[in-house]
Task: structure prediction
Amino acid sequence: MSLDLNITKRLGTFTLDVGFTAPNGVTAVFGRSGAGKTTLINVVAGLSAPDSGHIALNDTPLFDAAQRINLPAHKRRMGYVFQDARLFPHMDVTQNLRFGLRHAPAGSTGPSLDEVADLLGLTDLMKRRPTDLSGGEKQRVALGRALLSRPKMLLMDEPLAALDGQRKDNILPYLERLKSGAAGLPILYVSHALDEIARLADQLVILSKGKIAASGSIFDVLADPTIVPLVGVRQAGAVLQATVMEHGDDGISTLKTNAGTLELPGVAAPVGTLVRLHVLAQDVILSRTRPTGLSSVNILPVTVKSIRTGDGPGAAISLDAAGDQLLARVTARAVQDLDLSQGVTCFAVIKATSIAATSIGR
Amino acid sequence: MMLDAASWDALRLSLLVACTATLVALPIALWVAWLLARGQFRGKALLSALVHLPLVLPPVVTGYLLLIGFGRNGPIGGFLYDVFGITLAFRWTGAVLAAVIMGFPLMVRAMRLAIEAVDPKLEQAAATLGAKPTSVFASVTLPLIAPGILAGAVMGFAKAIGEFGATITFVANIPGQTQTLPSAIYSFLQVPGGEDRAIALVLWACVIAITAVALSEWLAQRVAKRIRGIEGDT
Result:
C-alpha cells in the first residue's frame, strides 16, 4: 500500500507544489506554520481540491486533474485525525466510535469496537460525552473512530499539538503500538514537533513555503546538515538506533549502538528492545582524540561525512557512526581549529542527560 | 370556559390554520435557511431581503399583495384555479398562505442562526469517516440544529395564531369559513355587548400561547440535554 501524489494548489499568494510517495509505515510531514501542511493533508483527504496533478492510493486514483477525477471525501476511506479531535458533541464515546464503524464499507475487515477501545484505553470512557473528556482522551477517541471506519490510510494533522508534555507522553505509546500493529496501513503524520516525528516516522518530508525541501528516510533526512536552518538549530538532530542491554540499579541503562555503547538515564523500554534516540545536534561535542577524564562516558568513534557552514558562526556536521548517522553542530571556528573535513575520523561525545526521555521511542 | 358556536369555529379554524401553516412552512423555511446560511450564489442578498419583507411591510399591504397575486383574477391565483381548481382568496387555505408568508421570516431566522452555529468541521469529519452527505445531514447536522428548528416552528405557530392584518385583507372575515381567532375577537368588539365573547376568546388565546411556549420549552430542554450530554442515556 502506498500513497502517491503530485499536486499544486494555489491559495491567494501561497502555492503548494509537492510530489512524493508515502509507503507503508509513518510518513511525517514537517514544516513551520504556513508551510502548507494542513493544506496538503486536506487535499489528500478530499476536503479541498488541488488545482492540478494527481493523487493515487495503491494505484487507485483519488484525484486526477487530467482525467477529471475527484473522489469525494466520503469515498476516499481516509481516516483523518484532526488536531481539534472534532468529536460529535451530541454523541457519547461509544456512539462516536460506532459512527466510524457504521460508515465502514460493508464486508470490510478490521479491529472490532472492543479491540480498538482496548488498544486505546477507552473502556472506562465509553459512556462519557466529549465535553467530559480531557484533550488526550478526545484525541484517543478520535483516533479510535478513524480506525473503526476501516480506512485504507490514516491522516493525522498535529494530533498531539493541543496537548501538554505529560498528555503527549500518554498518547505516543498508542501511536507507536498502532504503527507496529495495524499491518499495512500507511500513515501521513503532519507535525511541527520534531521529537514526535523522530519517535514515530519512517519517512520524512520537510515542507517549506509550499515546496518540498527534503524527503527520504527519517535517518537520512534528520542527519542531513542542510536541513538545520529548516527545522531550527534547537530541534535539529539525527536519530540513532540502539538496543537496550541492561537497566542499572542507579537508573542508568546501557544501550548498544553500532558504534559503541551509551549509558543513559530514563530508559523505560525493556531489555532487548530496539529504541530510537533523537540526539540533538547542539548536544554533540567533537574531539579529534579520544577524550579521557570526562564526566560523559558516551563517546562514539565517527567519521565526518559532510560539513555545512551557514551564514552565522555555526556549522552543521554530518557524521557516520559505524553505519548509523549523527548530526553535530559546532562553531565554524572549531571546524578550522580541529581541521575537520570530509573523511576525517574523530570522536562524538554525547552528554547522558541531553537525550530527553521523550525522545527515546521504540 | 364555554364558547358559542361562532367562537368555537374561530378557535378551531385558527388551530387548523396555524398547524397547517407551520407544517407547510417548516421544510421550505429549513431549505431557505440552509441556502442563506451555507449557500454561495448570486442574489443571496435579494433572497434574504425577499424573505424578510413581510416582517417590515404593513401586514395589510402584504395581504393586499396576496389578494392581487393569488386572487381568482390574479396571475398566480388564476393559474392555480385554471389548472388545479384551487381557490385561495376568501378560503381557509388562503388564511394558511397568509400565515405561512407572515411567519416565514421568523422561522427562517431561527433556523439560519442554528445552522450557522454548526461547525462545518464536524460535517467534514463525518465525511472523512465515510458518511454520505445525506447521512451527514441526518446524523450530525439535523440533531445539532434541532433546537433552532423547534424554535422556528414555535415562532411560526405563534405568528399564525395571531396573524390578523394580512389574513383579514386576503380572506376577509367570514364566520365559519375564514373567521380566525383574532378576526373573531375584532368582530365581537365591533358590536355592543360583545365584550364577554371577546374576553372568552382572549382567555383561550392566552391558554394556547402559554401551552405552546411551555411545550416548546420542555421539548427544547430535552433536545438540549441530548445534545450537550447532561443526561447520559439516549
